[in-house]
C-alpha cells in the first residue's frame, strides 16, 4: 500500500450553457482512510487535464496514481524492509517519533478548518448549491486542505479555480442555472474576492482568508466588501506565544454596512471556532442594514409621472423664488422608507428627459448617477434585465378616455326626449287620429273625401290637442259634439296627449339642464360602433401591446392609431373632436389624475370626460435600483411590508384626495364647513343648450319666408289659397268679435254645417230643464250668437225638414225676428269689419251667401 492514490473521477456533464464543465467528485473520507495513504509530497501535477474519464459504456474506473504521468501496469510494489540490523537498534516508536512526530510538532490546523467549513455548509448553505473556488496558492501548496474538504463535503457542490489575475478558469460557474449560489472562496489575497464575484447582494459568501488579520479587517472596512451583503470571512488567529503545538482558533468576521452617512462599513467579529466548537451560538449570516442606513444620502432620480411623481414649480405669493416641489405616491413611499430607515434623499432630474419618464430615469440608474429611480415605471421584462426592480407596489393599466356623453349635439335636444320610435308612433297616431274621430262623429268618412278644408280642420284639431296650445273653435270643431263615441275618443286622446306632453316637457327640461345619464364608452365594441378615432402617446409604448393583438376587434380599432406628442394633446383632441369622436389611450392612473385635477370643474359640459371600465394590459408599478445593489433587497423587503400593511393604499388614497383640487390650488374635497358639491349642472341654460329651439324657429321663418316669396311671385301657393278661399268657411273668431251680444236665456245652440252633400244637421245638446224637446227628441234652442251663417245655406231643405211642428214655426219666427234685431244692432260694426276683409255676408239671413270673391 505504498502507492498513494489520488482518486479523481472526472465526470462530464452539461450545464445550462451548453458548455462542458468539468466537475470533480471525490470518494468519501472513510474509503480513502482505509485504503490509501496520502503521500508526503502533496502536489497535483496537472489537475486540469482530465487523465481518465468515466466511461459510461464500460463502467470502468481507471485510477490514476499520484505523481505518475503514465498509468503503469497497476502492480503494487511492496516497500522493501532491510532485515539486517545496522548500528544502534531503535524501536519502531523511536523511529516514528524521530521521523514523524518531531517533524510535525506544528499543530495541523487543517482538520479544524475542514470541520468548521463542513459545519457551516451543513448549517447555512443548504439552500443553494455551493461553489467552491480556490486560487493557485491553495491549489499548489494546500491541495491537501481542498482534498480533505471536498472529500467529506456534506452536499453536492461545484468547484473551480481562480487564476493569478483573479479570473475564473470557468466564468460560467458564477452564473449557474439558478440565481441562488453560495460561494466558498480560498483566497491568499482577500481583496481579490470583489473582483472575482462582483456584486452579490443575496448570495452567501464565505471567504477563507490566507492573509493576516489586519488585511482582513482592512478589507471589511473597504469599498470592496460593500459589494457583498451576506459575507463571512474566516481568518486564523495568532497563536499564543510561539507554541506551535497548540491549536489556534479561527475567527469569523462579517461587516456592518452603512455605519455612517457616507455609507462606510465596519468589520465585526462574529464568532470563533476551536476544538470543533463555536465560542458563541449565533447566526453567522445575520440580516444586514436592520438599523437603517445611518443617515446615508441616496440619490433619487425622479421624473414627473402623475400620480406617482409630481413635479410642480411653486413660487412665493409674489411670484418670486420659484422652486421645484416633488410629491406623489412613490415619493411619499420613499420618504416614509427614509424616515423609518434613517436615510436621506436627494432628488435629481434625468439628464435626458426626452426619453420619456421611465426610460430617462432608468438611464440615470444604469449610468450610476442615481441609487433609486422613481417615475411610475411599469414592470416589464426589459426593465428587469436592465435594473433591479422592487415588488410592484401599485397596479396600472391602459384605458380609453372619451367624452362623457356620446356627445349628442344640443341642437338635437328638442328631439332628445323621445326615441325615434316614439316620434314615428306619435306622428301616425295624430295623423290617423282624425279618422276615428271623424267617423264616430258622422258615421261616415265621405265628408272628408273631397273636402280638404275639413281635413285641415281635423288636423289642426288633433294637433291642437297634442300641443295643448290651440283651442280650435271652428265650425267643424268637435268640442261641442254630442256623440258619446266622439267625446270618449276625444277624452282619451286628451288624456293620452296630456301624458305624452308632460313626458315631453319634463324630459326636455331634464335633457337640456342635466345631461341624461350618458351612454358611456367602455368597450372596444362601442368604440368601433361609434367610429372612434384612437390616439395614444408616441413613446408610451402602448401601441406595442395592441398591434399584434389576436383579438380581431382590437386589431381593427388600433389599425388607425394616431400618435400624439403628449397627454395634453391627446385630451385636447378628445374634447375638441368635431365630426368623429376621439378616444385617447393611456395610463389609467395618469388619466384619472388629469380628469380629477383638471376636469372636475369645467366650463363646458362637453368637457366632461369618461374613463373606460375596460382595463387593458395591467402592469405593476415598480421602483428601480441599480443592478445588484446592496440595499435593493432590503428596500424591496420594506416595500413588501408596506404593501402588506396597507400603507401603499393609504398613500394612494391621500394623494388622490389631494389631487381633487381646483386649478387655483384649493382642495375640492375639503372646504370650511360642509363638503361642497361642485356640479357642472347647477347653472343656467346656455345658448348651446337652447340652440335646438332657435334652430326650429329659424326653420319656421325660412319656410314662411319661402312661402312669402312664392306668394309675391304669384306662385302656386296663391292659387292654392284662392281655391281654398272658395271652399273653406270663414273664421270663427272673427265672427265672435262681430257678435258681442249678451247671452240669452237659451243655452243650446244650433250648429249648421255647410256641407252640401250631407243632410242638414241640427245638433243640439239637452242641458237644462228649460230646454224643450221637439222633433224626434232633439232639443232645438236657438240663440243669436250660436247661429252660424254660412254660404250655400239651403233654406229649402231647412223648411222641408221641419214642416209639421208648430213649435218649430214659432221658433223659426223668433229666429228671424232676432236676426232682424241683430242686423240692426251690428250694422255699423259690419261696415268696418268688411273693410278689414271680414267675410261675414251682408245678405239677409236665409239668403245663400256668396263667397267674397
Ligand atoms: C449511462 O449508463 C446508464 C446505466 O447503464 C444508462 O442508463 C445511460 O443511458 C448511460 N448514458 C449514456 C450517455 O450512455
Ligand atoms: C525530538 O524532540 C525532542 C523534544 O522536543 C528532542 O529532545 C529530540 O532530540 C528530538 N529528536 C530528534 C531526532 O530531533
Ligand atoms: C456545528 O457545530 C456546533 C457546535 O459549535 C454544533 O452544535 C452543531 O450541531 C454543528 N452543526 C453541524 C451541522 O454539524
Ligand atoms: C440616523 O443615523 C445617524 C448616524 O448614525 C444618527 O446620528 C441618528 O441618530 C440616526 N437617526 C435615527 C432617527 O435613528
Ligand atoms: C444588469 O444585469 C443584467 C443581467 O443580470 C445585464 O444584462 C445588464 O446589462 C446589467 N445592467 C447594467 C447596467 O449593468
Ligand atoms: C408583431 O408581429 C410582427 C410580425 O408578425 C413582429 O415582427 C413584431 O415584433 C411583433 N410585435 C410585437 C410587439 O410583438
Ligand atoms: C391630435 O393632436 C395632434 C397633436 O396635437 C394633432 O397633430 C392631430 O391632428 C390631432 N388629431 C385630431 C383628430 O384632432
Ligand atoms: C391642468 O390644466 C392647466 C391649465 O390648463 C395646465 O397648465 C396643467 O398642465 C393641467 N394639468 C394636467 C395634469 O394636465
UniProtKB/TrEMBL annotation:
The keyword Heme does not apply. Pfam families: Lig_chan, Lig_chan-Glu_bd. Keywords: Cell membrane, Glycoprotein, Ion channel, Ion transport, Ligand-gated ion channel, Membrane, Receptor, Signal, Transmembrane, Transmembrane helix, Transport. The chain crosses the membrane at residues 420-439, 490-517, 693-714. Gene3D superfamilies: 1.10.287.70, Periplasmic binding protein-like II (3.40.190.10). One of its GO terms (molecular function) is ligand-gated monoatomic ion channel activity. Coiled coil: none annotated. This is Ionotropic receptor 21a.3. It comes from Athetis dissimilis (Moth).
Amino acid at each position: 500500500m505504498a502507492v498513494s492514490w489520488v482518486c479523481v473521477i472526472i465526470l462530464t456533464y452539461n450545464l445550462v450553457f451548453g458548455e462542458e464543465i468539468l466537475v470533480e467528485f471525490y470518494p468519501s473520507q472513510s474509503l480513502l482512510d482505509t485504503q490509501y495513504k496520502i503521500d508526503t509530497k502533496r502536489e497535483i501535477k496537472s489537475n486540469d487535464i482530465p487523465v481518465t474519464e468515466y466511461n459510461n459504456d464500460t463502467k470502468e474506473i481507471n485510477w490514476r496514481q499520484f505523481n505518475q504521468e503514465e498509468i503503469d501496469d497497476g502492480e503494487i510494489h511492496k516497500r522493501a524492509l532491510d532485515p539486517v540490523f545496522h548500528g544502534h537498534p531503535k524501536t519502531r516508536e523511536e523511529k516514528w517519533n524521530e521521523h514523524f512526530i518531531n517533524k510535525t510538532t506544528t499543530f495541523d490546523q487543517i482538520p479544524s478548518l475542514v470541520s468548521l467549513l463542513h459545519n457551516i455548509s451543513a448549517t447555512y448553505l443548504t439552500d443553494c448549491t455551493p461553489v467552491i473556488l480556490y486560487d493557485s496558492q491553495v491549489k499548489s501548496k494546500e491541495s491537501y486542505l481542498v482534498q480533505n474538504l471536498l472529500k467529506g463535503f456534506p452536499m453536492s457542490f461545484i468547484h473551480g479555480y481562480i487564476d493569478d489575475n483573479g479570473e475564473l478558469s470557468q466564468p460560467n460557474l458564477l452564473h449557474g442555472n439558478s440565481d441562488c449560489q453560495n460561494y466558498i472562496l480560498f483566497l491568499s489575497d482577500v481583496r481579490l474576492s470583489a473582483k472575482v464575484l462582483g456584486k452579490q447582494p443575496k448570495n452567501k459568501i464565505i471567504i477563507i482568508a490566507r492573509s493576516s488579520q489586519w488585511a482582513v479587517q482592512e478589507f471589511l472596512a473597504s469599498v470592496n466588501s460593500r459589494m457583498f451583503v451576506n459575507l463571512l470571512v474566516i481568518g486564523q488567529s495568532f497563536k499564543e506565544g510561539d507554541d506551535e503545538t497548540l491549536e489556534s482558533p479561527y475567527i469569523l468576521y462579517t461587516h456592518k454596512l452603512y455605519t455612517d452617512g457616507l455609507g462606510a462599513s465596519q468589520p465585526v467579529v462574529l464568532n470563533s471556532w476551536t476544538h470543533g466548537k463555536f465560542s458563541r451560538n449565533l447566526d453567522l449570516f445575520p440580516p444586514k442594514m436592520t438599523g437603517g442606513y445611518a443617515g446615508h444620502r441616496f440619490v433619487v432620480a425622479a421624473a414627473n409621472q402623475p400620480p406617482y411623481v409630481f413635479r410642480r414649480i411653486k413660487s412665493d405669493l409674489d411670484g418670486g423664488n420659484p422652486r421645484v416641489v416633488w410629491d406623489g405616491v412613490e415619493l411619499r413611499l420613499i420618504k416614509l422608507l427614509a424616515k423609518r430607515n434613517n436615510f436621506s434623499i436627494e432628488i435629481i432630474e434625468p439628464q435626458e428627459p426626452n426619453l420619456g419618464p421611465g426610460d430617462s430615469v432608468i438611464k440615470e440608474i444604469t449610468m450610476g448617477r442615481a441609487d433609486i429611480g422613481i417615475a411610475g415605471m411599469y414592470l416589464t421584462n426589459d426593465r428587469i434585465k436592465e435594473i433591479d426592480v422592487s415588488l410592484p407596489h401599485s397596479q396600472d393599466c391602459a384605458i380609453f378616455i372619451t367624452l362623457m356623453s356620446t356627445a349628442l349635439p344640443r341642437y338635437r335636444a328638442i328631439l332628445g326626449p323621445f326615441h325615434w320610435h316614439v316620434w314615428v308612433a306619435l306622428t301616425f297616431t295624430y295623423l290617423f287620429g282624425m279618422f276615428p274621430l271623424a267617423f264616430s262623429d258622422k258615421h261616415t268618412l265621405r265628408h272628408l273625401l273631397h273636402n280638404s278644408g275639413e281635413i285641415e280642420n281635423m288636423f289642426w284639431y288633433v294637433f291642437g290637442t297634442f300641443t295643448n296650445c290651440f283651442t280650435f273653435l271652428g265650425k267643424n270643431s268637435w268640442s261641442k259634439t254630442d256623440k258619446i263615441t266622439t267625446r270618449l275618443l276625444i277624452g282619451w286622446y286628451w288624456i293620452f296627449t296630456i301624458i305624452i306632453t308632460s313626458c315631453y316637457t319634463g324630459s326636455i327640461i331634464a335633457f337640456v339642464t342635466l345631461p341624461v345619464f350618458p351612454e358611456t364608452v367602455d368597450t372596444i365594441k362601442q368604440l368601433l360602433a361609434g367610429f372612434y378615432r384612437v390616439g395614444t402617446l408616441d413613446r408610451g409604448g402602448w401601441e406595442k401591446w395592441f398591434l399584434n393583438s389576436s383579438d380581431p376587434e382590437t386589431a381593427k380599432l388600433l389599425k388607425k392609431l394616431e400618435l400624439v406628442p403628449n397627454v395634453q394633446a391627446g385630451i385636447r383632441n378628445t374634447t375638441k373632436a368635431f365630426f368623429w369622436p376621439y378616444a385617447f389611450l393611456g395610463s389609467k392612473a395618469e388619466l384619472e389624475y388629469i380628469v380629477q385635477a383638471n376636469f372636475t370643474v369645467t366650463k363646458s359640459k362637453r368637457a366632461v370626460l369618461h374613463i373606460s371600465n375596460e382595463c387593458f394590459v395591467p402592469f405593476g408599478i415598480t421602483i428601480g435600483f441599480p443592478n445588484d445593489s446592496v440595499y435593493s433587497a432590503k428596500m424591496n423587503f420594506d416595500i413588501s411590508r408596506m404593501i402588506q400593511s396597507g400603507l401603499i393604499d393609504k398613500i394612494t388614497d391621500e394623494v388622490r384626495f389631494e389631487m381633487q383640487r381646483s386649478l387655483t390650488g384649493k382642495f375640492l374635497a375639503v372646504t370650511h364647513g360642509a363638503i361642497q358639491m361642485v356640479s357642472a349642472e347647477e347653472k343656467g341654460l346656455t345658448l348651446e343648450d337652447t340652440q335646438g329651439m332657435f334652430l326650429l324657429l329659424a326653420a319656421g321663418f325660412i319656410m314662411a319666408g319661402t312661402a312669402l316669396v312664392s306668394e309675391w311671385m304669384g306662385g302656386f301657393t296663391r292659387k292654392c289659397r284662392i281655391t281654398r278661399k272658395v271652399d273653406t268657411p270663414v273664421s270663427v273668431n272673427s265672427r265672435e268679435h262681430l257678435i258681442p251680444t249678451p247671452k240669452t236665456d237659451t243655452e243650446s245652440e244650433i250648429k249648421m254645417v255647410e256641407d252640401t252633400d250631407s243632410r242638414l244637421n241640427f245638433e243640439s245638446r239637452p242641458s237644462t230643464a228649460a230646454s224643450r224637446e221637439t222633433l224626434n227628441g232633439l232639443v232645438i234652442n236657438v240663440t243669436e250668437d250660436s247661429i252660424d251663417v254660412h254660404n250655400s245655406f239651403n233654406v229649402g231643405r231647412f223648411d222641408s225638414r221641419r214642416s209639421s211642428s208648430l213649435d218649430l214655426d214659432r221658433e223659426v219666427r223668433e229666429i228671424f225676428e232676432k236676426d232682424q234685431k241683430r242686423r240692426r244692432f251690428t250694422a255699423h260694426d259690419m261696415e268696418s269689419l268688411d273693410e278689414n276683409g271680414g267675410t261675414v255676408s251682408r245678405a239677409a239671413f236665409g239668403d245663400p251667401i256668396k263667397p267674397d270673391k
